[in-house]
## 1
Amino acid sequence: TKYVYSFTEGNKDMKDLLGGKGANLAEMTNLGLPVPPGFTITTDACRSYLNLGATPESLDVEVTAQLRAVEQQMGKTLGAAEDPLLVSVRSGAKFSMPGMMETVLNIGLNDESVEGLAAKSGNDRFAWDSYRRLIQMFGKTVLDIDGEHFSKPIEELQHTKGYAGDLDMTTEDLKELVAQFKDVVLRDTGKPFPQDPREQMDLAIEAVFRSWNTDRAAIYRRRERIPNDIGTAVNICTMVFGNMGDKSGTGVCFTRDPSTGHSGVYGDYLVNAQGEDVVAGIRNTLSLADLEKLDKKCYDELVGIMHKLETHYRDLCDIEFTIEEGKLWMLQTRVGKRTAGAAFRVAAQLVDERLITQDEAVTRVTGDQLTALLFPQFDKDADKTIISRGMAASPGAAVGEIVLNNEQAIERTNAGASVVLVRRETNPDDLAGMVAATGVLTARGGKTSHAAVVARGMGRCCVVGAEDLVVDEAAGTVDVKSTGKQFKRGDIIAIDGTTGEIFEGNVPVVDSPVMTYISHGLEAGLAASPDDATKELVEAVDRILTRADSKRHLLVRANADNPEDARRAREFGAQGIGLCRTEHMFLGDRRQLIENVILADTEDERQEAFDALTPLQKGDFEGIFEAMDGRPVTVRLIDPPLHEFLPDLTEMSIKLALKTERGEEITAHEKKVMAAVRANHEQNPMLGLRGVRLGLKIPGLFSLQIRAIAEAYVACKQKGLDPQPEIMVPLIGSVRELQIVRDEATEIFKEVSEASGVEVDLPVGNMIELPRAAMTAEDIAKESDFFSFGTNDLTQTTWGFSRDDVEASFFNEYFDAGVFGISPFETIDIHGVGALVKEGVARGRSAKPELHCGVCGEHGGDPTSIHFFDSVGLDYVSCSPFRVPIARLEAGRAAI
Ligand code: ADP
Ligand code: MG
Ligand code: MG
C-alpha cells in the first residue's frame, strides 16, 4: 500500500484516501495556485495506526522520500540550523470537522534553528514568536499538557507589563516565554521539549492520528452522522508566515456570503498573525475591503483565485490564505458550509449563472436544510427591548436562560429549560454546551469564528462579536458596556441569528415565510416575506422543490389520524394518508366503550358494545376521508395490545389492596376489571396479542371497524365526494391470517352495498412488519391489494429488541462500541432490515407485478432511509405531516 501522496499526485475526488483538506490542497496545486509544497499521509495509515497502535512500517520510509523532495524543491532542510525548512502537520478527514482535531505549526524549530530563522529573516521577534507558538501547540496537542499552563504565563506577562495584546510583546518577552514553556514541558512530562526536527514531526503525525478519537471529535461525528471508523489523513505542508510583520497576515474568506448566499467577496483578515489567530478572536479582524487598501496586489490575486475556485468547484468555496511579506499563499479550500437559506439561494443563483443545472440544484440542498427554514422566527411586530447587537452568524430565533459554560448548559437543559450559551468566544471545548443550547452568543469573533462555523454546521441559532457585552463566567454575569445594564445567569434573553439582534426577555415567535409558502403557496409566501432577501429565498425554495416534485418516483403520503392533521398534511403536499391509526380513536371518553368490549361476558353484551362504537368510528372516518378527498387513505385496523386500554396491573393491584386494608368493599365491576387485567397481562406485549391476532381472537372487532370504514365511504359518496379508503391489516405473519380478514371484509362490503345501493369494493392490504411476512411475501401478495412496510416493528422484530426499552438502556454502549453509528429506529438498517424490505417487495411483486408498496413509520421521513426506499422501488413513503416537504425534496434528490 502507498501511504503517502505528494500534493502533486492527488485530486479533489480522492477525499476517502487523502481527506478533504489533502484532496483539495492537491487540486489547488494542480490548478497552478500558489500552495506551499507538501504531502499527505493517507487515512489508510491512520486506520492502521488506530487499529494496531503503531504506524505501518513502510510509512517512515515513504515520509522520508516525500520530505526529501520538498526539501529539494525549497532548497532547505527540515529544522536545519541555518535557514531551516519548517512545516505544519495538519489533520484533515474526509468530512470537514472544523476545529475538532489537531494541527501543529512551525515544526522544525529548536534552540538552534530559531537563531537561523531569525538571521535569515532578519526578524528576531518573528522567529521567537514562531518558536513559542510551536512549544505551546506541540505541548498542548502532542504532549497533552493543559493549555492553561501556556496561556497563563502569556496573560501574566501582558498584565504585569501593561500590554494591550499579543502584538506588544517584544523579542525579549518571547524568549522569556520560550524558556518558561520549555520548563513547563520538562515539569509536566519529565522530558525536555524534543529538539530533533524529525522526531517533532513524527510525534505530531501520531498526535493527529490520535486526535481522531478525542471526545469532542467523537461527539461531533455522532451529531453530524460521520462514521467513526474512517480516520483522518495528515497533511505536511511547508510553512509560510503571516506573522513576519505588517506586510504579512492571515485570513479566511468565502466566495459568497455564507449566511445570505449573496455573491461577492467576503472574509476576515488579521495583520501579523498566524494560523488560528483569525478564528480564535484574539484581536478584531479586518475585512477584505481593508485588505484591498493595505495590499492591492495580493487582494486582486486573491479575488482572481476566488473566482477561479468557484468556477472550478461550481459552488461556494471557503478559503484559508496567508500573506507572507506581500506574497499570497493558499492554505486550504473546500466547498463551504453554509446556512440553510444560503444553500437554497446559492443553488438557485448558480442555476441563473448557468454554472449548474436545475437537477444539480436539487442535489445541492438537503431535507435537513429545508427543515431549518421551517422553524419559527421572532414576531416582527412584537414589543421588543433590544439589549445590544452582534453579527448574524447562523439564522433562527432562540429564547432561553443565560448560561455561561458547558456544565450549566447541560444541567439546565436536562432540567427542561431552554438555554442560550453566552461566552466571550468559543473554542472546541465548548461543543457540548453548544449542542445543548438553543442558541449561542459570543462577545468576540467574526462570521468565521469557531462559534459561527460550528453553529452554522449544526443549524444552531448564533450571534457573534457582540462587543458591547462583557462576559464574566466566574461571576455569572453579562454586562452591557454602553448601557451599564447587567444580566445574570438564569435571566431570559432572545437572540436573532438572522439579524444579530439581542433582546431582553421572552420574545414571541411566528411562522417563517418559507413555512407560509409551503402551506399556502408561492404568492402567500412572498406576501409574508418582510424583505427582498426573504422573497429571494422563498422563490429559490419554490423552484427547487417544484423541480424535486417533478423528478421524484416516490409518492409522499402522511401519517394522520384526524381531520386536522389530514388537512395540514395536504397543505404540505401529502398525496394521501399512508397510515391512519385507529387506536387513538378509542382513547379519552371512548376508553370505557372499548373496556366494555373487553369485559363482555356474552356475545350479546359484546355486540352491544360494538354497536355503540360503530357510529363513532364512522364519524371519525368520514371526517378524514373528507379532508383527504380524492386521495387514498390507508386505515390500519386496531393494532396495540388490549392491555393498553385497561388499567395498569400494578396500579390496579395497589388500588384494590389499599381498599381492602381500609376495609372498603371491592365492587363486582372492579373484580371483573382486575380479572381482565390479569388475563390480558403479557410478559412480552409487543410480541403478544396484538394486530391481526386481536381480529382473530375477538370476533367482531375488525368487523366493527371495517363496517365503519365502508359506511363512511358510502356516506361520502352520497355527498358527492371521492373517498379512497384502503383497509390495512397489521402484523400479518401468514397468508391465512389475511385470508380470514379479507373474507370477513368481503362479506361486510356486500352487506353495506346492498343496504345502501352504493357499490363497495375497497382494497384490503397488509403491513409487512415481521420477517416471516417478508420471506413469504409471494404467498401473502396473492391475498393482498397492497403492502405497507412497517419498518418500526420490522426493526424491532428483526433485531429482536424492543424500541420502547432499548434506546435508553444500552444504545449508548452500542454507539461507543461501533455496533451502529445511528439508531436503526432513526435511519433504516439497510443491510439487515433493509434487506427484508427489498426481499419483501421482490417476492410480493413476483406474484403480483403491479403490487403497490409503501412504507409507513418514522423511517418514511428520514432522508437516508428515503434514498434507500427509492432504490428498492417502493411506490410511496408516509411520514408525519411536518416532514412531508422534507420527504418530497429528498425523494426528488434520490431520483436524480
Ligand atoms: P483546521 O482544519 O482546524 O482549519 P488547519 O490544518 O487548516 O486546521 O490549520 C490551522 C491553521 O493553521 C489554519 O489557519 C491554517 O491556515 C494554518 N496553517 C496550516 N498550515 C500552515 C502552513 N503551512 N503555513 C501557514 N499557516 C498554516
Ligand atoms: Mg484548527
Ligand atoms: Mg483550516
Note: The chain has five domains: 4-238, 249-335, 340-371+513-548, 375-510, 552-641+682-895.
## 2
Amino acid sequence: MTTGAVVVAAGSGSRLGADRPKAFVQLAGVTLLEHAVARLRDGGVRAIVAVVPDALVGQTQALLGDAAQVVAGGAERQDSVAAGLAALPADVDVVLVHDAARCLAPAALVARVASAVTADSPAVVPGLPVVDTVKEVDASGLVVGTVDRAPLRRVQTPQGFERALLERAHAAAGDSAATDDAALVERLGVRVRLVEGDPLALKVTTAEDLALAEWLLTRLSP
Ligand code: C5P
C-alpha cells in the first residue's frame, strides 16, 4: 500500500493575531507548515500535498521544493481537504489528513496512524483522554449537567483513511460541514478506530499555543 498525506494550511488563523496565515508563522525560524511536512516525511510519508491560500501557492512551492506538491485551498477546511485529495498521485491508497497547525505531531504518531490503516482499519483517529470535568451549560451560563468524561477523547490529526472511503465520504458530505474528516466517514456508517494520540500534536490556535510549541521544541532539541 502507498501512503500519502494532505496537509491543510489554507486557513487564516485569525485567533493567532499574526500578520500572515497561521501556517506561515514561524517557530524557531521555520514555518508551521514546514515543521508539519518534515515530521510527515520522518514518519515515512513521501507523497505529500500541501493546501494553502491561493495567493501563496507559488511561494510555498518554492519554499517546500520536492518535499510536497502545493495546491490552492477553499473557503472551508473541508474544501481544502477535498482539493488536496484530488491532487494526490493515483497510486496513493492510504491518506493521512493533517492540520499544519499541529506542526509538532511527531513521526511516531504519523507512523502509528498509518500502520493502523494499513493493518485493518479503514478509518483511524488519534485521541487523548479528557482530564477536566466536563459540564453542559445553557445560553445563560447555568450548568445543565455533568458529562461522563470516561468515554470521551480529544481527537487530533493526522487522521488516516483508505483513500476510496475518504473520497466517498467527501462526495457524500456536499455542503454539510464537519469539523474533522472522521465525522464524514462516521456519517457513512463506517466505524472509526481510535489510537493513542500525542500531547505534541497540540493545535496551535492562540499566541499562547505558539509560545508553548516554541518551548516544547527547545525541549525536544538535542
Ligand atoms: O482554523 P483551524 O485551526 O480549525 O484550522 C485547522 C486547519 O485547517 C489549519 O491547519 C488550517 O490552515 C486549515 N484550513 C484550511 N482551509 C480552510 C480553513 C482551515 O486549510 N479554509
Note: The two ends are 34 Å apart (CA to CA).
## 3
Amino acid sequence: TRIVTVPTTPHEGQAPGTSGLRKKVRVFQQPGYAENFIQSVFDVVTPTPGATLVIGGDGRFHNRTVIQQAIRMAAANGYGRVLVGQGGILSTPAASHVIRKYGASGGLVLSASHNPGGPDEDFGIKYNIANGGPAPESVTAAIHARTTGIDRWLTVEAADVDLDRVGEAMVGEMTVQVIDPVADYADLMETLFDFDHIRKLVASGFTMRFDAMSAVTGPYAHEILERRLGFAPGTVVNGTPLEDFGGHHPDPNLIYAKELYDLMMGPQAPDLGAASDGDGDRNLIIGRGRFITPSDSLAMLAANIEIAPAYRGRLAGIARSMPTSGAADRVAEAFGVPCYETPTGWKFFGNLLDAGKVTICGEESAGTGSDHVREKDGLWAVLLWLNILAVRGISVDDLAKSHWARFGRNYYARHDYEGVDKADADALMAELLAALPSLPGTVFGPLVVAHADSFAYTDPVDHSVSANQGVRVLFEDGSRVVFRLSGTGTQGATLRVYLERYEAPSGHLDADTGVMLEAQVAAAEAAAGIVRHTGRIAPDVVT
Ligand code: VG1
Ligand code: CO
C-alpha cells in the first residue's frame, strides 16, 4: 500500500490537559487538527513495526470520523493491528483492559469524558501507554512539543472500516479487528467480584437504579447488572449511548444526576443508586437517603476491599489525589499501609500501581479504581459496593455510619466556578501564590492558617517532579481549603475550591455538610477574593 504524506502546519493549543486534549468539536473539525495531534502521538511513541493499537471512544459526536482517520494513520505509521470496539465504543476502563489483555503498545481513547457532546460541544483525544494507563507527563509534554513543529502526517488510501460488525478487515497491510466492547470487560469483572453472592442479594429483593446518562456505560451496565447479576430489566436507565448524551452533561454529580438524587432521597428509593460519566470511568454512589461523597467512597471501599475475592489479603496501599479528602488516610493508618498523595489526574497513579505500591486509588471527582486496570473505573466501583453490601448484609447508610463511628468523618465539598474569564482566574491564582508566604498565622474567623503552599509532587518510583498542582491552605484545627484551575475545560476557566473539615468519632457525625463547612467557605473567600476577581457570588456547581 502506498503511504501518503500530507503536508501540514502546526495548530496552536494542542497541549494535553488533565486528561488528554479537549476542545470544541468545531476545533477538531478543522482540516488536519486531529491528524496533527495523532501524528504527533505516533512520532513520539514510535511504535515498533507490527505493534497493536487499541482505539475506542465514548460514542460522542465526531467519534466515528476520528476513528476512521486514526485507523488509516495507524496503518501508515507501521502498526500491525488495530483493535477497535464495535460501533466505535470502548469505555475508558474497558480500553485500558483491552490494551493490557492483548499486549497492545498503547491506545487512543476518544472522549471528553464528563463534558457535554454534540456538534457544538466537546471532543477529546487521549493516548494511553502499554500499561493501559494515561500517558505520563513526560510523554504528554513530548507530544505537545511535537505538535508545535509538525510539518506532515501519514495516511493510507483505504475505505472506511465497517465499525458496526464484529470481525476482521485489512487496511493497507494492517489488520483491523472490530471487537465486542463489553465481553472482555464483563469477564474481568467476574474474576474480581463474588457474582454469586451479589446474585443472592438481588434475589433477596435488593434493588438499584443505574443511570448511564445516555453515555458509554449503558451496554456494559445492561450486560453486567441486568444479564449477569439478575437485576430487573429497567434497573439501568438512559442505557443507550447517544452522540449528544441527550443534551445533558454526562457528569454523575448531584447537579447533573439530580433525577437520580431526588429518587434516592424520596419514598420510592431503591437500595442503591449509581451513575457513571461520558466515558465510564467515574461513579456516583447514593444509598437510600444517603449520598456518599467520592472521597468517603474511596475510604469505605478501601476499608472493605478485602471482602472481594480478587483483593483478599492484598491491600498494599492507598493513593488519593491531593484535593481528595483525608478520609482514606485514616483507613491506611488503621490498616498499617501507606497512603500516597498525588496531583489531580489518573496519570499520577500509574507508577504506584505498576510498582505494586497501591491497590486502590481515588479522586474527589468521583473516580475510584484499582490495579485491575490503569484507569478509574465507574462500574468497578459500583460492583465493589455491591459485593461489600452483599457480604456484610447492611445498607449503604449503615455502612457509612459504622465507618464514621470508627474513623471519624471528613466533611467535604467542592465549589466550582465555571466559565470564568481566564485572565480573572489567572489573576486570582497569581495573587494567592504571591500571598502564600504571609498566610501562616493569618486569622479567618475561627480559623488560623497553619501552613500554605503550592502543591508539588515527586513520583516515588521515577522521581519526576510535578510542581504547581494547586494551592493548599491548611488550618490549625486540621481543616483546609484547596484552590485549583481545571485542566479539562474547553471554555474560559473553571476555578475549583475544595473544602474539608474532620470530625473525630466523638464529634458530630451526622450534621449538614454546608453548615459544617461555613467557616472554611468564608476563609476561602477571604483568602482568595473570589467575588472580587470573578464577580461571582456563588459557585455554579457544588458537589
Ligand atoms: C477533572 C477532575 C480530575 C479528573 C479529570 C478527568 O480534572 O478534577 O480529578 O481526573 O477531570 O476526569 P480538572 O483538571 O478539570 O479538575 V474524566 O472522567 O473527565 O476523564
Ligand atoms: Co471520565
Note: Residues 411 and 516 are 7 Å apart (CA to CA).
